[in-house]
Design brief:
610 residues, alpha/beta, six-stranded mixed sheet, four-stranded antiparallel sheet, 22 helices, 63% helix, elongated
Length: 610
């Protein structure tokens, strides 16, 4: 319940007025339910001539309000029976019962009208919060999580939370009101019988609570396993070419079938527990009714009754009116426990700590034209133990092109990821224009930079929207100009719909070179002062590399550029080449200077020539 209270404070508080309106109409609905039940007593009295007492009109005052109202009601019914007959009186009572029931159902409907926007709004808000959190978390968070499991938390777990918890909110509003009002009427009718009810009900509530605790645990396991299934499907689709190439369809199929079998068994157990809720609560409710009927009936039949027969029937109706909300409230408790398991999984994302902190008093954005980059005694590790970069010192002047080369795993891509603060250094300092990047807003820092990576990350959208990504106000002319600079305009206008052609998932309808040129055009349109190229041509064929390299040369002109390269032929003209080995810069200089050193760089050049 503590978890649900925290959930309510976080997400329900913006809808307090809708919840308040639902409470009011639920109160009215329950009140008119009691009134409609109350009309059963005079109807029984009329039908079976149980009431033989004569009533006279009584003046109403503050001291005898309740007694006077009941007395005058029976006096009025008796008057109608004397003047117009029993049938007329019975018809009026039945008409009053219909009117009360109509008012009750309309107030019930009104309460639902207030709570429906709350239910749908909560689902929307949770999805929005989750998506906002996903795109705000650092890249490092996702290196430790499976993509399919994150998708499952954003879809299946949110839906489970909506079905289990959000839809139970109306129950948590409606049924406690019904229980409180029913108990109040029962106490008024007979506090002795009601005291007996209080003695037996807590035992039944304890039994139901034990089942609810187990339900949450099994629900968490089920949702976790569902996330693993989704991860398996996502990985299989992403690696389908490899699966087929290695004839591993049977292996993957057996693995998936084993997972679904475990999921099947777990869900069978879970759903059996959920299905147990209704019959168990109904059986317990029947036992309670039987006990009350035996206890109260024996007192009346033995002549020790403190209420008459018709009032005892009304008492039983009110007790039944208490049992049904109690059952529904118990059922809501079960579903909430199930939903809280989904909330726990969602909270692992919503509650994840972002190590990339924004400064409380951000520094102004440096002048892009004079923004040099300095790395001073930089050390970094992904896990806090194994160093990836060690004692990195590097100065990149404005407009200078610096290339990073070295064997795979030497730390080149990690170094360029530190500059836009995808990660934070363990020690040392990185500055842009003399300002520590930790003193800048990440949005301001990354606004100075453009990235072109080895894998062109495109979206399943039009070519135009991919080039204009992050630049929503870009015009057609600006996009076309960027495409021309990137050597992409010619092939774009030859596609089916030109710039409005959809390129498929991750740009699958384009070749590697075309995807890379779209990526370069996107960077051209942003017009960054600092450009980061991470092996932008290493995955291309010779012809595509030539076209992309021409586009990159146009993009790099008059910009501060950091190039990560495996193909050394692309960085011969760099102003400075740094050779990394085991996380350290072991050589630096121009191409000719490094060749003259006859060291690591010379070996790399010789290997590529061979």
């Amino acid at each position: 319940m503590k978890a649900f209270i925290r959930f309510a404070i976080r997400f329900i508080s913006p809808y307090k007025w809708q919840v308040f309106g639902s409470v009011i109409f639920n109160f009215l609905s329950t009140l008119f339910t009691v009134f409609s039940f109350a009309f059963i007593m005079p109807i029984l009295n009329v039908l079976f001539s149980i009431e033989t007492q004569h009533y006279d009109y009584m003046e109403v005052s503050a001291g005898n309000l309740n007694t006077a109202l009941v007395n005058n009601f029976y006096w009025y019914i008796g008057s109608i029976m004397e003047q117009h007959g029993v049938t007329t009186a019975l018809g009026l009572l039945c008409a009053a019962l219909v009117i009360m029931t109509f008012i009750k159902v309309m107030t019930y409907y009104a309460s639902d009208c207030f709570i429906i926007p709350v239910q749908n709004g909560l689902e929307r808000d949770i999805r929005n919060s989750l998506y906002e959190r996903i795109i705000s978390l650092p890249i490092g968070f996702f290196t430790l999580e499976r993509k399919g499991d994150i998708i499952a938390r954003s879809t299946a777990d949110v839906k489970e939370l909506q079905v289990s918890v959000v839809t139970s909110i109306s129950s948590l509003i409606r049924y406690p009101i019904a229980i409180i009002i029913s108990l109040s009427v029962m106490l008024y009718l007979s506090w002795r019988l009601t005291a007996f009810v209080f003695v037996i009900l807590p035992f039944f509530g304890w039994i139901m609570g034990m089942v609810g605790k187990k339900l949450k645990s099994h629900s968490f396991d089920s949702q976790t396993m569902g996330g693993e299934l989704l991860s398996n499907i996502e990985e299989t689709i992403g690696g389908l070419r490899v699966v087929k190439a290695f004839n591993a369809q049977g292996q993957m199929d057996r693995r998936f079938r084993a997972q679904t079998q475990d999921y099947y068994k777990l869900n069978n157990h879970l759903l059996r527990m959920i299905s147990l809720a209704h019959p168990m609560s109904e059986f317990i409710g029947t036992i309670a009714v039987a006990v009350i009927l035996w206890f109260g009936g024996s007192l009346i039949l033995g002549g020790h009754g403190f209420i008459d027969a018709s009032m005892f029937i009304f008492y039983l109706l009110m007790f039944y009116n208490l049992i049904n909300p109690s059952k529904e409230l118990t059922k809501a408790g079960y579903t909430i426990q199930k939903g809280m398991a989904a909330m726990d999984r969602i909270d692992r994302i919503l509650g994840a700590e972002n190590p990339i902190k924004q400064p409380e008093n951000p520094a102004p954005v440096p002048d892009p034209k004079n923004a040099d980059i300095r790395l001073e005694d930089v050390n970094f590790s992904y896990d806090g133990h194994t160093p990836v970069l060690r004692d990195i010192n590097l100065h990149i002047a404005p407009g200078q092109t610096v290339a990073l080369v070295g064997q795979s795993g030497s730390g080149k891509s990690t170094l360029v990821d530190l500059i836009p603060r995808f990660w934070d250094v363990d020690s040392g300092r990185i500055s842009v224009g003399g300002t520590d990047i930790r003193d800048l807003l990440t949005s301001d820092l990354r606004g100075l930079m453009g990235n072109v990576n080895q894998e062109a990350l495109l979206f399943n959208d039009t070519i135009f929207n991919n080039i204009a990504f992050g630049m929503p106000d870009a015009t057609q002319e600006e996009v076309e100009q960027a495409a021309r600079i990137a050597n992409a305009h010619e092939f774009i206008i030859n596609t089916e719909e030109g710039y409005q052609t959809r390129i498929g998932d991750r740009g699958c309808r384009l070749s590697g070179g075309q995807r890379q040129r779209i990526s370069i055009a996107r960077a051209v349109l942003k017009d960054p002062s600092i450009l980061i190229l991470d092996e932008a041509t290493s995955a291309l064929d010779t012809e595509s590399e030539r076209l992309v390299q021409e586009a990159l040369d146009a993009l790099m002109r008059d910009r501060t550029t950091i190039v990560v390269a495996h193909r050394l032929s692309t960085i011969i003209n760099a102003d400075l080449i740094c050779v990394l080995q085991n996380g350290r810069i072991v050589e630096r200089g121009t191409h000719d200077e490094l060749i003259a050193l006859n060291g690591m760089y010379k070996k790399l050049v010789d290997m590529q020539q061979v």
